[in-house]
Every structure is written in C-alpha cells, then in structure tokens.
Design goal:
The structure is a single chain. The chain has 16 helices and 15 strands. It has 417 residues and is of the alpha/beta class. It has two domains: 47-278, 3-Layer(aba) Sandwich (Aspartate Aminotransferase, domain 2), CATH 3.40.640.10; 288-408, Aspartate Aminotransferase, domain 1, CATH 3.90.1150.10. Helix 8 (185-194) links the parallel strand 7 (171-174) and strand 8. Helix 3 runs antiparallel to helix 11 (265-278), helix 4 (70-87) runs parallel beside helix 11 (265-278) and helix 5 packs across helix 10 (248-259). The relative contact order is 0.15. The mean pLDDT is 97.
C-alpha cells in the first residue's frame, strides 16, 4: 500500500485514492527506465503533502506581500543555502515551478524578443526551451541551433564555435534531454567568452550526477545553471536557477514578479529535503551507481545487437536507434510497457521518422538504482528488453512481465509498503 497511508483520502474520495494506490503499485511492479523519472524518499513525499501547501508567499524571504511568513521564510532560506552548499554556487533561486519556466526566466532576465540565442537542436537531444521552433523560445527569439556529428553522435565543438562566431548569440545553452555523453562545459565556456555570450548550463537530467560527483560541474564555467529538482537529483517536481552573483538580481526579478506569483511552499520544503539527502556521503555512492548501471546496461544491449547513439553512455542515459531491429520506437516502447519495463520512445539524431513515431527509445538508470538494482542485474534487464522488442505474441510479453514482477518483489520502493 501507499506510504504515507492514504486513509483520509480514501475516506473522502475513494475514487482518487484507488487511482493513487494503483499508480503506486504500478511503480512498484515495473522496471522504470524513463530517464526523467525517479523515486523520491518518503521524507520528500511527506514534505510535498504537508500543510505548507496552504500558504501563499509572493516575494522572497524577508520581502513578502503576505503576512504569516515566519516559518515559510526559514524553509526557503534552508533550501537556498542547501542548494548553494551542494552545488557550490554563489546564488540560488528555488521558486521556479518547473524546468521550462526556469529557462524562460533566463531569457526574460538577459534577452529581448528578437535577440539571437543558441542551443542544441531538439532532434539532436536538446530541449524545447533551448529555442526549438514550436516553443515560445523559438517564436520570440531568433534561435540558431547546433547538433551532433552523424558519424559519432557527439557534439563537434569546432562546429559549435563556427556557428557561434557566425551568429553571435546573446545566450548559449548547453545540456538537453537525450544526451548520453559528458557535456564539455569548459569548451562551451571558451566559445561563449569568445563571442561575448552568457553561457547557460541546463543540467536538469544530470543534476544529481553533478551533486554526487559523477559528472563534471558547470560551476565556474557557466554564469547561469538551470535544473529541475527531480530526475537524478531525486527531489520533487520543481526547479532551481543558480548563478554567479552578477546575474542574481536579474534572475530573481525574472522569476518574481516577471513570470510567477507565489511559490509552491510544499515543493520548496521537499526540495530542501532532497538537497539535504544529496549532501550525504551515500548520495555519492548512489550517483556513481547510476552511471555504473547505465554503462553495464549499455554494454549488455550492445552485445545483443542494439545500436546505441554515440556508441554508449557516460551518464545515466542511453539512446537506442531501433532501425536495425526492424521496429519503430513507439511500438517497441508500448510492448516493453506491457512487459513491465517502462521507458519512452524518442527521436534519434538524423531520424527519418516523425517525432510521434520515431526510430528510437530512451532509457535511464536513476530509478532502478534507487530501488537497489546493480550492475549484476543489467544483463538480465537487457535480455528482457530484447525479448519484449522481438516478441511475436503477447504470451512472451506476459512471461517477461511476470519475471520482472518476481525480481522487483525483492527490492523495496519508497512510497510503497
């Protein structure tokens, strides 16, 4: 059952309680490989569901527009200080509602509509808010985009420099949503300095790896760092902006009053809890375990004939091109879900297929590492993926799902007892 217990919810709204319990059981019984998901601790769950959700707190600590902030101010100050300590930054804002508004605040703070901005193209692994055409950032700004080399699947920093010199962007974004390799923050910083641009590191996917020392930090290279607080950081659904002191005031004004009203205080508290957890020594072991699992799973998939974009991974994320397997990403992801393995279909670089029916799938190892799975389980996981993707009937898929449930029964899940 769900933990904390849902006794009051069950009495008040049994329909919703039943759905929440069903989702909790689903999360317990499936191998969750969606790279943007994780399991938060029970402490984070409790903070998220606390009475702090009752309080409205427009403004910042010590400068609110509502009374009764004696405890809220302390919560926010704790979250800010913990972010500064964990990441080693001069300034942190913990109020953004999610990653996209956090990135939009960067534009609002430092650019004007029509300014040239630069980011990684969405099909190459970037994010919508890095200037892609369907995003407000692509409609309101003149966006130019870099990609990856077709032969390596990796960013060519010489090409990035050539594009930056030709276009002279005001902002350069590095990072994205489907990048399986280490981001070269020093190289991006050198290019940004050369064209007098502000470098923004979007570390939403790798924030937990950075915090745990399993990925190089952008601090000292990027003037601004944007991140969500879930994914590898293992916190609630929220976001943070971090920066050097020179950009602090502009970012704060862009978040409030520029884009938002009152912060979600229950989320702020849960962020503070997650940051305290990330500061503990065992979190470094966790971050290292995420990467070790990803590398082991990548190796096992390669041995089974799967084509990995860039040939492998340096972080938590694996991007697989299924073209050689004769199946598209969407039906493969749906079959895997029925087989008890949850991931998402995803475009791959230079994908000839459409985004809603792409050639690839994206996997991440943060959640299974939280559950306690290790490198010794990765060959079996690759075997199940291979069986489900190539299954000729539902009986085979059902058999994999049963084996998955049997394995996971021995691995506890925060939020389920």
């Amino acid at each position: 059952m769900h933990e904390p217990a849902l006794s009051h919810l069950a009495a008040s709204d049994p329909a919703i309680a039943e759905l929440v319990e069903g989702e909790a059981r689903r999360q317990f019984e499936k191998i969750r490989l969606i790279a943007s998901e994780n399991y938060v601790s029970t402490a984070v769950l409790e903070a998220t569901g606390s009475v702090l959700t009752n309080k409205y707190s427009e403004g910042y600590a010590g400068k609110r527009y509502y009374e009764g902030q004696q405890y809220i101010d302390q919560v926010e100050k704790l979250a800010i200080q913990r972010a500064k300590d964990v990441f080693g930054v001069e300034h942190a804002n913990v109020q953004p509602y999610s990653g996209s508004p956090a990135n939009l605040a960067v534009y609002m703070a430092l650019a004007n509509p029509g300014d040239t901005v630069m980011g990684m193209a969405l099909p190459a692994g970037g994010h919508l808010t890095h200037g892609w055409s369907v995003s407000a950032t692509g409609k309101w700004f003149r966006a130019v985009q870099y990609g990856v080399r077709k032969d390596t699947g990796r960013v060519d920093m010489d090409e990035v420099r050539e594009l930056a010199l030709a276009e002279r962007p005001k902002l350069i974004f590095c990072g994205g949503t489907a990048i399986p390799r280490t981001i070269d923050f020093p190289a991006f910083a050198e290019i940004a300095r050369e064209v007098d641009a502000v470098l923004v590191a979007d570390i939403a996917h790798i924030a937990g790896l950075v915090a745990g020392g399993a990925h190089p930090s952008p601090v000292g290279h990027a003037q601004i760092i944007s991140t969500t607080t879930h994914k590898t950081l293992r916190g609630p659904r929220g976001a943070m902006l971090m920066s050097d002191a020179a950009h602090a005031k502009a970012l704060d004004k862009a978040v409030f009053p520029g884009l938002q009203g009152g912060p979600h205080n229950h989320t702020t508290a849960a962020i503070a809890v997650a940051l305290a957890e990330a500061a503990r020594p065992d979190f470094r072991d966790y971050a290292a375990g995420i990467v070790a699992n990803a590398k082991a799973l990548a190796d096992a998939l390669t041995e089974r004939g799967f084509d990995l974009v860039s040939g492998g991974t340096d972080n938590h994320l694996i991007l697989v091109d299924l073209t050689s397997k004769g199946v598209a990403g969407k039906p493969a992801a749906q079959a895997l879900d029925r087989a008890g393995i949850e991931l998402n279909y995803n475009s791959v670089p230079f994908d000839p297929r459409k985004p809603f029916d792409p050639s690839g799938i994206r996997l991440g190892t943060a959640a299974i590492t939280t559950r306690g799975l290790g490198v010794e389980q990765m060959p079996q996981l690759a075997a199940w993926i291979d069986r489900a993707v190539g299954a000729s009937d539902e009986a085979e898929i059902d058999a994999v799902a049963a084996e998955v449930r049997e394995l996971l029964a021995g691995y506890p899940m925060p939020g389920w007892i």
